Structures are given as structure tokens and as C-alpha cells.
Amino acid sequence: MARASQGADPELGVLRQAGQVFRYHRRCIPSGVRLKVDVAGETASLRALLYSAMQDREIAQQEAEQLLKELERVRRAAGAGASSSRAAEGSHSDLEDRLAVAVRRAEGAQTELAERERELRTATDRTSQLQRQVDTATGERDQLRIRAEAAELLVAETTRELAKLRVQGSSVDQMEMARLRTEVMVQQIRIDEIRGLVTTLGQ
């Protein structure tokens, strides 16, 4: 078993850690900087690992099936040659024992690889979900920037209008000037709030 049996335990440990990468980031990284994680890169890496694990499991399954068929063939041959010499019986028994051990190992490796595949599939699904959340947050941030820019234009326009009214002197309607001042203040507060949200989403 070239891929499934050589160094199976170390590989399994590494890939289990990779399969928990989403949980690690959610647990260890402060919420304010979680969106800085390269979610797309991690998702691509996990998908590559998942594809490799699926191939390994398929190879292990094929090899286990081949060994099982060979074991059954040897057992049938041993049953058919019941009247053969004691030396031949010992040879068949030894071969049967070794094949039985190989089958158990192959089935154990197949079970471990199936577990690895499940873990990687779960981790991939979770990082994909996180990617969708990041995309949603990015879209909301862009919309907030547009709103902030619109509010800034309104403030600039209102400020210019207020300046013109001040130049006109006492003939200006004081209530209109008060309304414009209030409008400028309200829009400025809104701009500050939107900028704060943009900064938070950008982290």
C-alpha cells in the first residue's frame, strides 16, 4: 500500500490538524481580525487535501478488496488440498495467516483514511461558509462606503449653501440657517458612524 500505509500515522496527524484549521482560527484569533485570515487560500488547501484523502481511501479500499480475494483464494485452495502433505499444509497456513494480517491492516488504514476524509470535508464546508460570510461583510462594507461618500457630498453641498446664506446677512431667514446647521451636524454624525462601521468591517 504505497500511499495508504507508508507513514500513515504522521500524515493522519498533520491532516487532522489541517481539518481543524477553521475551529483553530475561530477560537484563537480575536474577532476584530478574523476577516484578515486568508479564507480563500485555506479553503483551496483543504480542498486539495480532501481530494488527496479521497484518492488514498479509494486506493486503500481497492487494496483491501484485492487482499481479501487473495485470502479467500488461498483458503479455498487449502480446503481443496486437504489430503496434501503436512509441509504443504504448513505453507498454506502460513500464507493464510500473513494474508489475514495484511487484510486487517488494509482495513484499518481504510477506516483511518475514511475518518480523515470526513474531517477534511467538514473543515472544507466550514471554511466555505466562512468565505461566504467574508464576502457578505465585504459587500456591506462597500455599500457603507458608498453611503459615506453620498453623505459627505450632501454635507459639502449644505455647507456651501449655508455659507451663501451667511453672506446675505440679516435678510436671511434664521430658521432656514438653523435647519441647515442641524442638517450638517446630523450628516456629520452619520458619516462618523458609517466610517466606524467601515473600519470594523475592514479589519
TrEMBL record:
Sequence ranges of Basic and acidic residues compositional bias:
112-124
State the superkingdom. Answer: Eukaryota
Annotated region Disordered: where?
A: 112-136
* Protein known as: Uncharacterized protein
Species of origin = Colocasia esculenta
